[in-house]
Amino acid sequence: QKEVEQNSGPLSVPEGAIASLNCTYSDRGSQSFFWYRQYSGKSPELIMSIYSNGDKEDGRFTAQLNKASQYVSLLIRDSQPSDSATYLCAAPNAGGTSYGKLTFGQGTILTVHP
Amino acid sequence: SQTIHQWPATLVQPVGSPLSLECTVEGTSNPNLYWYRQAAGRGLQLLFYSVGIGQISSEVPQNLSASRPQDRQFILSSKKLLLSDSGFYLCAWSWTGTRETQYFGPGTRLLVL
Fold first, then answer.
1. What does the buried/exposed string (b/e) look like for A62-77 if buried means 16 or more CB atoms within 10 Å of the residue's CB?
2. Any idea of the CA torsion for B43, B45, B46, B48, to the nearest 10 degrees?
3. Chain B neighbours among A 46-75 (CB < 8 Å)?
4. Which residue, A1, A5, A37, B38, has fewest beta-carbon neighbours within 10 Å?
């Protein structure tokens, strides 16, 4: 079983819609979660981190964490074509902090069409 | 502020040739450092990580090696490249501590022919 799984996508939404990206993780002890955006041919860029149950908002982005369900999501409101990218979910490696090692999901490709 | 550099940006190498990729971080001291590989259309695979000078941990067996000769320098090497070594190599750093947030460099795209 993969430690971090993302909805496989690809996900296509019209401009202005809400894009919803989902991620589940297997380690109940995980305390922190990260969303990265990766444009084609570029390196991943951190867009959100979340450590507590509930919602965390940053501009058009909202991360949601539900530790009981081992589920973390990223909502992008008013999606723009510039949001088209691969979104990676990451959680600490199972077994503790392990020197800050992260496990990444396979990524969800998001396309926002005009 | 912190900055992470990688070079070269792209590299085309023949099978069997050696490899040396370099990563340096500015603006922080004693960072955790990581090397990842991303094959085309695939996820990120952690290759090596380091918590200090000379301290290297390998995540997967392979013909690659890593070294950390200075606090903010991380080098990925190979004596003989394989076709399967082609990919996008990413260096990342994080603060020592418990928050694990990693920040990536621009990457090196390697094509082995």
1. bbbbebeeeebbbbbe
2. -140
3. 46, 49, 51
4. A1
Spacing of C-alpha B7 from chain mean position: 10
Q: DSSP code of B83? A: G
Which tens digits make up the pLDDT trace of B11-51?
Answer: 999 999 999 999 999 999 899 999 999 987 778 999 999 99
Q: From A92, A72, A103, select the one nearest B36 (Cα to Cα).
A: A103
**pLDDT score of A98:** 56
CB A89 within 8 A of CB A105: yes
Classify residue B75 as exposed, middle or buried by CB count within 10 Å of its CB (0-12, 13-18, 19+). Answer: buried
Q: Which two tokens stand for residue A91?
A: 């959680």
- Return phi, psi of residue A41, to 5°: 80, 0
Enumerate the residues of chain B whose CB falls inside 8 A of the CB of residue A9.
none
Distance from CA of B86 to the nearest CA of A (A): 14
Residue B108 has pLDDT above 90, yes or no: yes
C-alpha distance from A100 to closest chain B C-alpha (Å): 4
- CA–CA distance, B70 with B52 (Å, rounded to integer): 9
Give the CA diameter of chain A: 44
